[in-house]
Amino acid sequence: MHPLVQRLARDNPHLAVTGIFEASVLATLSLLGPPVPDDDGESRMWGVVTTGKFWEAHLTAGVKHFLGQKTEEPNLKFGGIESTGLNAGDFHGGVDPAVIRQKLKEATQRLLGKGPVECVVMGCAGMAGLEDIIRDATADKYGKEQADKLFVVDGVLAGVGLLEQTVKNRRMFRN
Question: What is the domain-level CATH number for residue 49?
């Protein structure tokens, strides 16, 4: 959890507070639903495409910690993290859009190669608006039908939705 999110939650317990990471994980789990093996006997999976290589291990550990798992424990629904090798600023200038498209597409396809991935989280707020690249990568690898079924989670939108639902839940379940 981001230190700012921790501090805001601790210092303002009456406020609804979340980070985009936590919101993305919760949104993804709700989209996939309970573990139901597909026709091949594998669980439906999710994973993250993100910026630099550093984030692969860091976010993997973060997912397991958030879900209450030990680092070495497997998670049948979590396909892992794949990075583009770019940084957040690269998505908004300085790098040719064709390079961004290619690197995001390659990271997405590596993630899709890990199993029946049905949900891809964009692991950087700077990726907002790039959902079509992830869908195109999916269509190239598995066809348009699979790409149309894929959930692509934008952490900022997930955060807004989670905060809205948290406020509603507090009103609904407090009285």
Answer: 3.40.50.1860
- Asked whether residue 60 is assigned to any structural domain, the reply reads yes
Name the helix (H) or strand (E) containing 74: none
Domain that holds residue 71: 28-154
- Give the pLDDT band of residue 38 (cuts 50, 70, 90): low
**Burial degree of 168 (CB within 10 A; 0-12, 13-18, 19+):** exposed
pTM: 0.88
How buried is 11 (Cβ within 10 angstroms: 0-12 exposed, 13-18 middle, 19+ buried)?
A: exposed
pLDDT, tens digit, for every residue of 153-171?
A: 999 999 999 999 999 999 9
Residue 120 to residue 118: CA distance in whole angstroms: 7
